[in-house]
Structure formats: structure tokens, C-alpha cells
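INTERNAL AUDIT FORM
Audit reference: QA-55
Scope: verify that the stored structure record matches its stored sequence.
Auditor: D.O.
Record contents follow.
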Amino acid sequence: MTCSEVFRRLNSSRVKNLQRLVSGTSLIVMAVTVGCGSDDGLNRKPIKGVITVDGKSVPNGSINFEPLYQGGVGSGAVITNGAYAIAQKDGLPPGKYRVQITGDDGVNFGVSEGKMPGDEIMPPKKQLVPASWNSKSKHEIEVPDKGPTVFDFTINSKEK
């Protein structure tokens, strides 16, 4: 086969179609990998707030939002030094949610000198949020379609 025959075959329509397919596939793979935008169509809102128990910030804990409507999307966050925040990409769509909060005193257990982890039983952390606070349908929020999405919670440990 001569060089000119090889060149003619490379320029055939089959090769050109293959080149187009590879180029098109590469563009699709790049779009999926990079992403075509962060909007998932749920109109998520960033959520943030402050949690206090008896007027003091909760040092360590978590907050969860459970949707109260069919097909809803929930979310949650870690509480650190009384504050929590959920970014918009993980936020809540407008609607009603049940709130569940846990919080402890933030005191970490240290292994005694000369002991190995597992040698001692870790004492339970002091829970600051009373179990009664998290009872079903007791604490709910509504995330608006527009407006602020700041939800602060002031908890009384003596609450029944």
C-alpha cells in the first residue's frame, strides 16, 4: 500500500465520523465531570442559626431537619460553639420541617496516664438538650420561598 492510499483511507467518511463521535463524547464527559451547574431544581436555601441551652451556647452537637411533606428532602449540620450552617447546595427546599437537636457539654475523655485506649470505659457525655425537647411534632420550622433562612433555637433544659 502506498502512502497516498493510506492517506486516502484516513480521510474516508468512516474515519471522519469516528473523529466526530470521539469529539462529541469528549465534550459530554467534560460537561458531566465539571458539572453544568449546581441547581438541582429543588430551590434549596442555605440554613444557619445559633443553639443555646439555658442561655449558653451548645459546645458540640447536631441539628437535623426532617421534611413534613411527601417526597421532601431533609438535611442537617454539626453544631460547634453554638452555631450551625448548611450551605445552599445541601440546604432545604421551601416547606415545613421537624427539628431534632442533640448537644453535649463538649468535654472530651482523656486516657489516664499509663493506660491504653480501650483500657478504661469512657464516661457518657453530659447531654444538654432534654429528650423531651425532641419529641415528635413539637418543634417545627417553615423554610420560606423568599426571605431569611436563619433559625435560632433557645432551649430550656427544664422544659417538659
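Auditor finding: record pair retrieved intact. Helices lie at 3-10, 13-34.
Action required: none
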